[in-house]
């Protein structure tokens, strides 16, 4: 097609003459995006958020955010004549009387889970590859804030149906809020409009859930995407990839078509879950009553770690000035409510700046690291995952006790021990695994890859001929760049490295950065020292040797 069709040219000219958008479109429509599956994790979260907005808008047409009591007279026979809130009654109406209402409800709930799960996976990808480094620190902070807001958005939405399960979670939330020193009682009255359960919590959560938090998330997501567009994507090292270019496909038509298809795939998966995987059947739980609680009640996965922290925390408290009359701080509530989430969120926010302080690295980074090539960072990430996993697991300690017939006292103490032991084990194991993978990469560079060709040596022995790895694989392996290490040439250290803090910084830099497994510059060889490259394939440039002393070639007879 050599000319633009009139149906496209006319509207395009109209908009360009009035908005001046032609130059912007021409500059950006050919923007290059790297082609790697891990970059799609963020898109899963983005598309799930779009689905949340669409389905949430549908649900607002029928949901009534009121705690006013009525007698149920709907189509669900087991609850006829039962006193319940208008919020719960409208949820039942959505589920059984509105055409497609139950499907949309379940799609909305599954989309919320996929949204937060996608953000977590995306954050792990960014962390493990070092994509948060300069110039992307601000975008990393925006992502951390979005994740934090999404947790509270999920909590407010989870509470809206006013069923017995969500009410139990709301009761836990109220206990945590009122246990906060100084501000707890004020926050409690602000949220509930009086003594628990109050009369306003559903309507207030509804306003927060559909207006305040989605607006903040939408604004932050927009800023996140704009910064990503301006700063360009990171990419993994490889053939032809540098800090000054991006290798991939253009935004139009390749990336646009791929993204459109991926949105449809994401929607299809969530719609399939909403159709075939029942979630949150509120009619089975009944309306909320402060005097009742659901047996084995569990929150959604993204809040289960806070539930686990509450369950394994010892019953500690502090009486101010030695008397309860002066005031009591319930550590059994304050610590689980603030410490786990604070450690993870604050640690994520500060990590780029702490790492830069330790390494002294102020360069721009547009090439992503392979996780194995920064073993300490990867080990820290796995330790956090283990910490989260233990708390998540023991958020269901009653379920574990009931199904495995282990007393609750034992499972609680197991959680208290594992919450410290599991992260340490995860760190140590991950560090050793990363070093082993680096040695494996070094062996590929030194010996090549197995060719399947067996060669007989003059002395009667047999060896397998190793071939040089493909150019793109070799460039990928050689593209690793260790974290810098603080150093100085003079006998007297610079001012910033003097004193106890400076010496600590220098020791941390030497431990965190540097080359853990020396790189290999060489090419595949047989045991007899002859090059094992296939016929017609040249040797590597002169001066590139074999493995460092002490490393075997791992060839067997």
From TrEMBL:
The keyword Phosphoprotein does not apply. Its EC number is 7.1.1.8. The chain crosses the membrane at residues 44-63, 109-128, 140-160, 172-193, 205-230, 251-279, 329-354, 375-393, 413-431. Its cofactor is heme. It is an enzyme of class 7 (translocase). InterPro entries: Cyt_b/b6_N, Cytb/b6-like_sf, Di-haem_cyt_TM. Pfam families: Cytochrom_B_N_2. Residues 513-557 are annotated as: Disordered. Coiled coil: none annotated. Keywords: Membrane, Transmembrane, Transmembrane helix. Residues 11-237 form the Cytochrome b/b6 N-terminal region profile domain. It catalyses: a quinol + 2 Fe(III)-[cytochrome c](out) = a quinone + 2 Fe(II)-[cytochrome c](out) + 2 H(+)(out). This is Cytochrome bc1 complex cytochrome b subunit.
